[in-house]
Amino acid sequence: MKKTLILSIFLASIIISAVPRQASCFQLTKELKSEIDDKQWLVKVHPNDPQYHFDLAITYAYSNRIEDGLAELKKVKELDESYAPKAMAYYSKKTGLFPDDWKLRFRYAFALYFNDEKKEAIAEFQKIIQQDPKNVFSYGYIAVIYGEMGNVDDAIEYAQKALDIDSNIAAIHLLLATAYYKKGRPGPGFQETFEALRLRALGY
Fold first, then answer.
1. Are 107 and 88 within 8 A, CB to CB?
2. Considering the entire predicted model, what is its pTM?
């Protein structure tokens, strides 16, 4: 994959910490942990299949394991540099068959993004939000894409919406700080950067 900015912006939130998460923060549920285990097993069984690596990468993306997801996307590129359009075609079909499966739609949104179909990717993330208004990472990724497109006001709006859902995700504070700096607002930018660093120190 050539495009990894949407993931790398969130890298600042990934550290190992012994500090337990509060109930109001994102938590890795047993169901999500089981999903990760299953997809890790498939990667182990099919180590040279980019499909399984991409599938695992996006699972990491909505599990707040962004650094692991980025590593898997790098593996996808190593295995098949032309995988992006294949992913878009595959998940377009799967989403059409199972329109209520937000996890498939999440994958389709990423596939669209990696094919430079940014507006279409935003539309898919917005459909996820319609299904699950508290899907915090969908808001975050929409904010990232808007930022890349130069729509900084929209990026700020969606980053703030994400923080309204969960104010303890350090990466979204960092994303909001970046948007404020682009708007020439260093004061709020510094405040958000400081908050991101504070939360990182706590393991968020």
1. no
2. 0.81
Q: What residue segments make up the domains of the chain, in order of their start?
A: 1-10+29-117, 133-204
In contact, 106 and 61? CB cutoff 8 Å: yes
Examine the pLDDT at 4 and tell me if it is beyond 70: no
pLDDT-based confidence at residue 46 (cuts at 50, 70, 90): very high
DSSP per residue over the chain, as a string? ----HHHHGGGGG----SSPPPTTS----HHHHHHHHHHHHHHHHSTT-HHHHHHHHHHHHTTT-HHHHHHHHHHHHHH-TTHHHHHHHHHHHHHHH-TT-HHHHHHHHHHHHHTT-HHHHHHHHHHHHHH-TT-HHHHHHHHHHHHHTT-HHHHHHHHHHHHHH-TT-HHHHHHHHHHHHHTT-HHHHHHHHHHHHHHHHHT-
Could you say which architecture CATH assigns to the domain 133-204? Alpha Horseshoe (1.25)
- Evaluate whether 116 touches 148 at the Cβ level (below 8 Å): no
Contact by Cβ (8 Å): 174, 194: no
